[in-house]
Amino acid sequence: MPVGDPKFAIVNPDPTVDNCMKSMRFGDWMSLGGITTGSWVYGYLVGKPFRTASASCAATIGFTFGSIFLLQNTRGRFMGHKENSREVRIYGLDPNQPPKYEAPDRRNPTYRGLVSDNMKTKMDW
């Protein structure tokens, strides 16, 4: 995930796997099916002596990769790093949003750091 402030609105700054699974889009499920099917075909074509065993193993690896990839994309939408208009409409906005900064002069910008102050974790010493 990117380190700086998100470009889109934050829906949930710390989503769980359950939240991500419940909010997957149709395209996410189709991507998972495509990655799994493609890896099965690859395993079948490459694994000459044991085609079905190689294909099943490759499909398992592809399914694992697809699951992790889709959870990463869904988490990015919740945290505001990817386009998330549907999630904002369904779940609403998080009350703690980073401020939107406009560069006063694009030719002579001033350094503000990577993360705004209200997005940093508060240390409880």
UniProtKB/TrEMBL annotation:
NADH-ubiquinone oxidoreductase 21kDa subunit N-terminal domain: residues covered: 6-83
TM region positions: 53-71
Top-level lineage group: Eukaryota
Keyword vocabulary terms for this entry: Membrane, Transmembrane, Transmembrane helix
Metal-binding in keyword set: no
Disordered as annotated region, ranges: 91-113
Protein name: NADH-ubiquinone oxidoreductase 21kDa subunit N-terminal domain-containing protein
Species this chain originates from: Thalassionema nitzschioides
Source organism phylogeny: Eukaryota, Sar, Stramenopiles, Ochrophyta, Bacillariophyta
